[in-house]
Amino acid sequence: MSISTRAFESADLPTNSAKASTAGDFASFDLKSLSVDDMAAPSKAALPNVSISESPAIEPQTIEPYFLNIGEVNVTTAAQNEAAGVEPDFIIGEDGQIRKNPNKAVIAQDGNLNIQVEGGGSAEAIKAANEAQKATVRELIRYYQKYNPGKPVPQEWTDKLHAEPNLPASDSSRANTSSPRASVAPDYDPGNSSPGDSTPSYRSSAAAPRNYSATPFSPGGRSSSPGYRSSSPGYDSSNYPAEPIGPRGNIENFAPVAGDLAMKGPPTITAEKIDEVLKSYGSPVAGLGQLIYDEGVRTGINPAIALGFFIQESSAGTAGVARHTKSFGNIKGEGPAGSYKGFRAYPNWEEGIKDWYRLIDDKYLAPQSEGGRGYTHLSQVLHTYAPTSENNTTAYIANVKGMVNGWDNGSNTNVA
Fold it and tell me: Per the domain annotation, does 111 fall within a domain?
C-alpha cells in the first residue's frame, strides 16, 4: 500500500524541493527518501510500560507519513495483540482519540501499521486510517501539480484518493433514520466530460447529506436577501428541493465540542487569499474568490470555513464528481443541471457556490422556528452533513480548523 514517489523524479521537479512543509503535525520530510526508519524513535531500546491514558492524544494527521512506506494497516483489539505478543503502533481509546503507543519504541517495525481499538469498534479505526492516507495523497498531489503544471496526476494516487474504506457491517443497534430517497433524473452528462471518462463514483472523505426530498424548498434562513436568482433563465434557487436534515430533536444533543469553530462571524480570510489558495490547488474555481467572500458576508458565514469545506470535499474541485457537477460541497440530489452519480449538478461554479451557502444557512444555521436546526458551530453541522456513520468527523473538523487557522496566520499550505 506504499505510495510511489516516481512521479517526483521528473527532470523538471528537483527532488530537494519536493518537501512537505505544512503547519501542524505534517512535519517536513523528503518525499523521495522518506522511510519508516527515518521516523522511528532515536532509541530502539524497550520503553518502560506506560499507561495509554498518560499519553497525550494526537490528531490523525500525525500518522500520515507512516502511510508512505507501510505494507498494510492492521486493525486489532487488545486481546488479539496480547495473544500474538505484539504491541500496537497507535491506539484509539474509548474517547475516540488516537494516541501513539508509549510502550513501543519503533513505529511499524515490521513494515505494517498496527492500530488497536479500545471501544467504538473497528470501523472508527479504519476510517481514521483511511482519512490519514487520503490526507497524505492530497499533499502529494498538491506538490506534484505545483512542480509539474499541466501534467496528469499519477493514476495510482487518484485511485487511492477515491477508494472507500472497507468498513465492517453496521451495528444493528444503530437506528436508520434516513428517509426513502426520491427518484432522480438520469445522470447529467456534462459537456466537459469525455466519452471515455470512467471516473469512479466518488464519496469524499466527508459525505454530503444524503436523500433529498422533492418537496419545494421554502426559504427560512437568516440571510438578508430572500435567495438569489441565478443567471440561468428559468432557474430560481428558492424553488430548490430541500435537503432533509433528519429528525430535529433537541439542539443540546449536538453541543459544540471543545475548540470548535463558530460558523458565523467576521471573515478571517480575504478574497485575494481565497484565490491564492485556490490557485495553489489548480482549482477550476480560482478567480471566484470574491464571490466566495461576498456570499460569506451576505449569509454571515465565515468564508474561510466555506473554503475549508470545499477543499475537504473535493480538493478544491479537482477530484471526484465535483469536476463534473460543479458542486461546491458534493450535495446529494438533483440540481438545476440534473444530477451526476446521485449528486447535484450545476451549469456553472457560481451557482454551486451560492447553493452551498443557501443550504448551510437555511437548513443548518437558521433557528428551528424558521425551518433550520439552529446550529452555531462546525461540529454541529458535521453531525448531519458528514455523520460519523460514514466519515471520521473528528478528523474532518481538525482538517477544516487547521486550514482556517493557517490562512488566518498567512499560510496557504494547510491541506485537508
Answer: yes
